[in-house]
Amino acid sequence: MLHDRILVKLDDEAAERRSASGIVIPATAQMGKRLAWADVVATGPNVRQVSNGDKVLFDPEDRHEVEISAQSYILLRERDIHAVAEPDSADIVTGLYL
Fold this sequence. Notes:
Elements: E1 5-10, E2 17-18, E3 24-25, E4 36-43, E5 55-58, E6 64-68, E7 71-77, E8 81-84
Antiparallel strand pairs: 1-4, 1-7, 2-3, 4-5, 5-8, 6-7
């Protein structure tokens, strides 16, 4: 990766969603402007806020798709990312409270 580019792979969960009442909404259903989550696969040397393995939120309309070894990836700039998800806190030990 060069400069501030980030290579991400869409979440498998992004294919279909469930409504609050449990109805499955297929990926082909058109919705208003909606942001998408993806996992970071690779980052360029000038990327400062994101690292490999992070889960990022971005606008699907601002993407460039690329295929590498029969896998589909999305190429983004660091400025196109809206948020980075905090890792699960299950691995973090807070200590004992007395």
